Amino acid sequence: MGFEWNGRADGVHGRDGWVDYAHEPFIGDLLLDLAREGRLVLAPALADELISDLERTLDVVGERARQVESVRRAPPGIPREHPDSVVDALFVEQVAPRRMERALSELPKYVEALHLARERGLVEDADTT
Question: Which superkingdom heads the taxonomic lineage of this protein's source (predicted)?
Fold first, then answer.
């Protein structure tokens, strides 16, 4: 299933209806579809760099999500000092609820799409040599 672009820069019509990318911060399904259709192709070196960066990002987001969960499960009424990273993670969760949880489910799609795009890049490199 592909995506249909309507000529506007704010979204596409995909398998789940209209996806408004102006207000939707994650595009994992779109990247996967593009990679599967062969429309996302990356040189292996670039793909490796991007995959590495995304995996580091996933590690950081995962750690922050664990910190938020730890604070949520702490017994109430006990004052505690929290490192700045925990305070930052709690603030993010207040400002953008479930954003970290969503990132943890979406970013692996980015990594998968980049692996597919890397493989496509290898094939295209082999075809040109």
Answer: Bacteria
Token pair, residue 47, equals 């793909």
Q: What is the pLDDT of residues 73-112, one digit of tens each?
A: 888 776 677 778 888 888 888 888 888 899 999 999 999 9
Segments forming the whole domain that contains residue 44: 4-128
CA distance 44 to 74: 45
pTM (global) more than 0.85: no
Instruction: Determine the Cα–Cα distance for residues 53 and 118; give it in Å rounded to an integer.
Output: 15
Q: Residue type at 61?
A: V
Listed residue (43, 89, 92, 47) closest to 70, CA to CA = 89
Tell me, what's the pLDDT at 8? 45
By CB neighbour count within 10 A (0-12 exposed, 13-18 middle, 19+ buried), where does 23 fall?
A: exposed
